[in-house]
Specification:
By secondary structure, the protein is of the alpha/beta class. It is about 45% helix and about 10% strand. It has helices at about 10-15, 15-30, 45-50, 55-65, 75-85, 95-100, 105-115, 135-140, 155-160, 185, 190-205, 215-230, 240, and strands at about 1-5, 30-35, 70-75, 105, 125-130, 165-170, 210-215, 235. Strands 2-1-3-4 form a 4-stranded parallel beta sheet, with helices on both faces. Strands 6-5-7-8 form a 4-stranded parallel beta sheet. Helix 12 (about 215-230) links the parallel strand 7 (about 210-215) and strand 8 (about 235). Helix 11 packs across helix 12. It is globular and about 50 Å long.
Amino acid sequence: MRIGLFIPCYIDAFFPQVGVATLELLERFGHEVVYPPDQTCCGQPMANSGFNAEAADTEALFVRNFSGFDYVVAPSGSCVHHVRDKFDAIEQTEAVKEVRARTYELVELLHDVLKVDAFPWARFPHRVGLHNSCGTLRQLKHATPSELREPFFSKPMDLLSKVEGIEFVQPSRPDECCGFGGTFSVFEEVVSTKMGYDKVRDHARAGAEYIVSADSSCLMHQQGCAERIGVPMKFIHVAEILNGASA
């Protein structure tokens, strides 16, 4: 399988280890992974802020970079949601539609496409609280939203449960937004901050040593909140654990 690796701008700038872990993890399963060097932002921040038309050039560049791959994979649910469901600032040619349809978030690819059933190199002997970002939960269908009262499933938990030593703990309000919400955290700073404080305290009361997520943006927000209120929590992307990070 030939995979185009899309690393969102904030991961490239602040969490490069997540991009490296994603690359190494996909290569462990024998796939050819290509990183187009002139890739940039997918345009999500502009579109979310009401400047959808201004995202056209970044969307067009994305399509040029990632045409021709079997799959396009990113370690970010929100970016994949934008590409697949909101990528409409440019004309919807067959090439655009094909790139959008082939774009997958990492957990989706591992669970739904590759159907990985073991990570023999991975061991993580820690108590973790799983955070599903709102878009990843409700748009990409990573797990069952608790408000629907449907039979439980969780793709990231299913994958992580195959890692030796890991122990899951459950916050009292597992699907509550952490307050990041992209530009929401900028324009509604006070509300966003209070939501973040509540979220990390909920995980701390449950006994989590780490909060793990498929979205580094949410982890970034919660880490800042935890540091400001003195909650001794650590934060890690699911790709890092599945690739063999021990701490």
